[in-house]
Amino acid sequence: MNRKLLKRSVALMMLLSATVVPQVVAPNQADADEIDLHRLLVGPQRCDHVISLLMRYGVNNDHDQSVGFNIPHPLGPIQVPVSELGDLEMYSIVQHAAPQPGCGPAFDVVIKNCSTRDVQGMRVTLVGLLGRIHPTCPNVTETIDCIAAGEAIQLTMTLPVEALAMGQFNGGSVGCSRILVAVDSYDQFMESNEANNLRVMAMKAIPVAELASPPVPADPLQVEVTPGVANVTQPDSSQPVGAAPNAASPTTDAVNLTSTSPAEAAPLQQSDLRSAIEQFGQQSDVADEVR
User: Fold this and answer.
1) Which of 76, 189, 213, 243 is the most buried (most CB within 10 A)?
2) CA–CA distance, 43 with 206 (Å, rounded to integer)
3) CATH code at 103?
């Protein structure tokens, strides 16, 4: 009797040890980044992921689901608290005035994090369009390392040079006419408003960033020199008063004028007039002799 109980207890212990203690087995698969794996298999220059988002959410839509946001589950619906929900949106976009050599059009895109948590590793995709979208449209994808809660970040995104020649018209190349911006383009994060992540707009409707013009220097003193007389032209009234002597002093020294007052300048004018009259008289005498 005791042997039977002992055998049963030993069998029970072996069964419990087999079910409780995990077996050490070498892993047969590795965890990989799905986005990088997709870019390796499909190619980094394709925008298939944006097309799938378009078919799911459309474009230029706005649908806030923060109220009554439920997730289906086998054990029943799960309701996410409103305070834990957030949203990522495109705040603004501005295009550069002229593209750089060998590059396509460049844009400054501002992305805002409307949530209470930091977002890390989010992707933004920019697609150039001429007509309908297709997987090989020129596009660029940028990764944002981190956006703090409630803050915004600016990205400078440059399309490939193929965006400048997507078609032909009358023998000339035609560039992209519309721009599609996809926020969270790989749909990594659950948001309260997924529909506002896709925005399309015409190139003419995007404002152009204004280049800052360099400051114009003030006009220096202009000195016109005639024989025996110096005419000084004053600068514009907007120039500081203290700058006039410094600007005029080197010019006066270069001219090497000896008379500064009107009383001293009058004899010089009379002597010049007298010498001119004498020279004219000599020329008239020579002309009479020739005749």
Assistant:
1) 189
2) 29
3) 2.60.40.10
